[in-house]
Amino acid sequence: MSSSSDAISPSLAASNSGRKEPSTIFLIAGAVLLAISTILLFVTGSEADPARNFSGWIVGVSFWVSIIIGMLFITMIWYLFDSGWSIVMRRQVEHAFAATPWLLVCFLPIIALVVLDPGSAKVAWTWLGHAKMSPGGHGSVEQDVLYQAKSGYLNYGALLIRFFGVFAVWIVLTQCFRKWSLKMDETGDHKYVHWARKLSAAGIPLCAAATTIAAIDWFKSMNYHWFSTMYGVWFFAASMRAGLAAIVLAMFWQSRRDGGLKGILKPAHAYLMGCIMLAFTIFWAYISFSQFFLIYSANIPEETFWYNMRELTEEGMKNSWFVISRLLIYGYFFVPFLWLLFYTNKFGWRIIAAASYILVFHLIDLYWNILPQELVGEHHEIFTRGFSIMPVDILTWLGTGCIFLWAYLKSSNQYRPIPIRDPRILESLNPNE
Amino acid sequence: MKTAKQENAPTRPNELLGPEMSPELLNQRVGDEARVRARAWWWWLALFATAGGVFMMFTAITWVLAKGVGIWGLQIPVAWGFAIINFVWWIGIGHAGTFISAILLLLQQDWRNSINRFTEAMTLFAVACAGLFPLLHLGRPQYFYYLIPYPNEMGLWPQFRSPLVWDFFAVSTYGTVSLIFWYLGLVPDLATMRDRTKPGLRKKIYAFFSLGWLGRDQQWKDYRALYFMLAGLATPLVISVHSIVGLDFAVSIVPGWHSTVFPPYFVAGAIFSGFAMVATLVIPIRKLFKLEGMITTRHLDNIGKVMLATGMMVGFGYVSEVFFEWYSGDAFEMQTLMDRLTGYYAPVFWTVIFCNVISIQALWWRGIRTNPWLLWILAGVANIGMWMERYLIVVTSLGHDYLTSSWQDFNATGWDWALYLGTLCFFFFLVVLFVRLIPMVSMHEIREILHERAERGKEAS
Amino acid sequence: MSKPYGILALFNTAQEIYHAAESVRDAGYKRWDCITPFPIHGMNEAMGLKRSLVGAFTLVGGLTGFTTGMTIAWFAGEFNYPLIVQGKPFFSFVFPFPVAYELTILLSAFGTLIGMFLTNRLPRHHHPVMDYSNFHRLTDDKFAVVIETDDPLYDEAKTKRFLEELHPAEVVVLENKEEVKA
């Protein structure tokens, strides 16, 4: 029984007369940062670890790509579940979708390096360089029996096709949802909602396949000996967490702006987002633990080496990743889980803190997955690349982030803050917990 | 012609309840009429037919306890056969009930209110059937209690690294929590039945089990806290129980079993087969007991959608497995893959693909989802497909594992089938009893929806 | 002649009882309750009730369960009868996790159940309200407000008049047929 004094009508809420945020500055900043980072990628690199910049690039760009993937999935889930409360949030996601094609552009330096010189020592996807020494002393990659078994999948041409394929899936899906919702603002035609629901139903399997392929190609192939059927699901879980956290931050930022969600965002919205964030925190932990637990229990060296790299050196001493591993367990699961479990922590500054915290740890999770790689030293000894944060990481991450923000702000300036002619908008403006 | 209301709510074409539903009709259909209908000839026929099957089950159980598990088709290397297959299949079916009760409650999906009582009961019966198999398949079933960590003078403790011990804890917890959840959901309805029954033994039984429930708001407050808390507990329980069942296979090193995606893949499969069983039961029952006003085409639509979604997840699991069996480069994994695709077990594999992946694609069409009999047929196909999938997982991997000299194919015996079909009849027997004795639909939850609908109607006018 | 239990006012719709509850709460009555066939949204606020304490019992149960699970595994694996199995450590938080997790949920459920019974004071097979002639409608489609005689503001005439002003379908004084210890 909600009292009518709190009820908001869409027309009151959605005036477009707010201040326009500066966006071009982000475009310039992003372009400059990425340019410097590209130069670092192509030109510099240490002798001992030439592929480090490449790995840093993957971390930086994948962070933002995973946010888009998470937002895409949650949009499709919201459409399929017919949820009424989330309509307000959905517009922020649609603004962010404007960034998807630009993220493809941000990825292009990596692809350029792969196309120009696939066998280069700078490329962290070692299987591309057939003459490179494979870790484990099985001769070169070409001679590696384990590579030969996978070479039907892990080859240069297939990689490129898949790369553009997964981005095509993401771009088509995000742009369709975005365009249709913006169109509905103008025409009020409800057919767009029907189309969006149908596309969501088809989109989830497609996006699931694309996400899995991206995880296998970009992250898992760093150590191509390893395989885990759960890996794609891990990337989905991590992306969901990142996407939801980004939505929370976006909606709170907008709630301070006059042309944004000021007066529109209700505590109930934050509470419900907090509940979903809790659910996916638990889901991420379930997925990550399952993968670890199965490999731990079966104890087969062909699989456990991947986890051993993230804990111990070759001699059995704790390496730099040990702390990060423990940090992920306690910091990325227990702390947010216990925090979000409580009712009062799903509102106000508390949930903003939780969202920011999760994004920081998502970056650490990506580092933990991508960076450790078996490198072959000068004396053919095998060692694992340790944890480090290099300038190229920061530049790439900041640069891609600036481009992402530029696209989001441009869209936010141009279009309304809520989908005012969505048939369920009233329900979303006055949500129940 | 669409009404204005329908125009404004294009995403909700079907109502949750038929337009003729009212509290009186609710009480009639679920309370009084159900009992009257349950005296019909078809009820007695169902009872006796399933009772015959129960007799067959007891015979099979007695014989296996007397003679040992050698009467089944088990051999080395296929030391796990129908017992594990049936155990996993039944537990999977039980999961739909908890999913509907707990997870859909937390997701505020009101359509669950019509079917949750029924499906929770289905869970309990499925768990009862499932629980038989781990007991019976032990070589010395009289020592089943060794799984419990009790202090004894033999220095004997259960092996906590073993997934079978985890299973014991998981399934016991699952059975207990499901029972609590089901029973507590029932208490207000038992109070209603108590108040509608004339004084006598029946009234006394209802009164005893309804715990003196009054409907005081203080009680509702704590009741709702309990209900949502249990739903919040049952959600991780559902996911963990079938994950642990999946771990039975996944922590091993048997080719085809050691796949890290097994936990969520098994959970998706469980919900898929569970919803298929829900459809198999609910569609005839709503017809026979005239519950179409409460279990509308909207419910069938949603059941179909869940089946489609989880079926696609299961399909994703198949693709992952096939891909990674190839990607791993492991010769034994490749062998398992080839056995399934083109070898001795290819008919089973392709039947599974047909039932679980291809046939459910029909559920993309709303016309098929909302057609009760087509949905019923697809649900039956899905049930068969999921049983065969368990067969595929267990038997093909064990039959052709590492040592080629040990390879042997599995053949089920008559006792295997007798026990399985016996438990199937036992399950249906319990369902037949349930519809006669206990209110099938959660009356107090339907009343909430009726009330909300009346409120919405008043606001609209 | 036993002391009456309280006064009951019967209402026909949920809206009416919702507003009636707000009035009774605002009048300052403390020992009273609403009886409804299903829980009404917002009724807790209308009655001025605090949040349920059931959650605390759940937490205690859960923590007990987790500790118990890990302790049993540690006791069996490391303390009482260590066996080298699969090259794994005698005790680790990893492998007994499923057992501890399930026990957490089981004991949380038991804690919740006990919590509800304690806070609800069930089972209580007889209650004076059950003697009311229309009681069977209260678990069906009618709603009632009951103000107990134990309330400090209770006065038979005044309270009856107050309730009649809320326009109920009927107002009845409930007798206390047995001495029930609250």
Task: Describe the model.
The complex is a heterotrimer of chains A (433), B (461) and C (182). Chain A has 433 residues and is mainly α. Chain A is built from 15 helices and two strands. The model of chain A is unreliable at 1-6 (pLDDT under 50). Chain B has 461 residues and is mainly alpha-helical. Chain B has one domain. Helices cover 71% and strands 0% of the residues of chain B. Chain B has helices at residues 4-8, 23-37, 41-67, 82-106, 116-136, 163-196, 201-209, 217-250, 262-288, 297-327, 331-342, 346-358, 366-369, 372-399, 414-437, 443-460. The longest helix of chain B is centred in the middle third of the chain and has 34 residues, at 163-196. With 182 residues, chain C is α+β, with helices and mostly antiparallel strands. Chain C folds into two domains: 3-50 and 126-176, Alpha-Beta Plaits (2-Layer Sandwich), CATH 3.30.70; 54-119, no CATH class. The model of chain C has no long low-confidence stretch (mean pLDDT 82).
Question: Which properties best describe this structure?
Answer:
heterotrimer; A: about 425 residues; mainly alpha; 15 helices; about 65% helix; globular; B: about 450 residues; 16 helices
Q: What is the helix tally of chain A?
A: 15
Structure summary, number of beta strands of chain B: 0
How does the major sheet of chain A shape up? Answer: 2 strands, antiparallel
Low-confidence stretches of chain A: 1-6
Order of helices and strands of chain A: HHHHHHHHHHHHHEEHH
What is the strand arrangement across the widest sheet of chain A? 1-2
Task: Categorize the overall geometry of chain A.
Answer: globular
Q: Helix content range of the residues of chain A, please?
A: 55-70%
Distance between the termini of chain A: 12 Å
Radius of gyration of chain B: 23 Å
Radius of gyration of chain A equals: 22 Å
Termini gap of chain B:
20 Å
Number of strands of chain A: 2
* Major sheet description of chain B: none
Mean pLDDT of chain A: 90
Oligomer: heterotrimer
How many domain regions of chain A?
1
Task: Describe the secondary structure blueprint for this structure.
The complex is a heterotrimer of chains A (433), B (461) and C (182).
Chain A (H helix, E strand, L loop, with lengths): L9 H4 L10 H20 L8 H30 L5 H11 L2 H17 L28 H6 L5 H32 L3 H29 L11 H24 L12 H32 L2 H9 L10 H22 L6 H23 L3 E3 L5 E3 L6 H24 L10 H5 L4
Antiparallel strand pairs in A: 1-2
Chain B lengths: L3 H5 L14 H15 L3 H27 L14 H25 L9 H21 L26 H34 L4 H9 L7 H34 L11 H27 L8 H31 L3 H12 L3 H13 L7 H4 L2 H28 L14 H24 L5 H18 L1
Chain C lengths: L5 E6 L2 H14 L4 E4 L7 H5 L6 H27 L16 H24 L14 H4 L4 E6 L7 H9 L5 E5 L8
Helix pairs in contact in C: 3-4
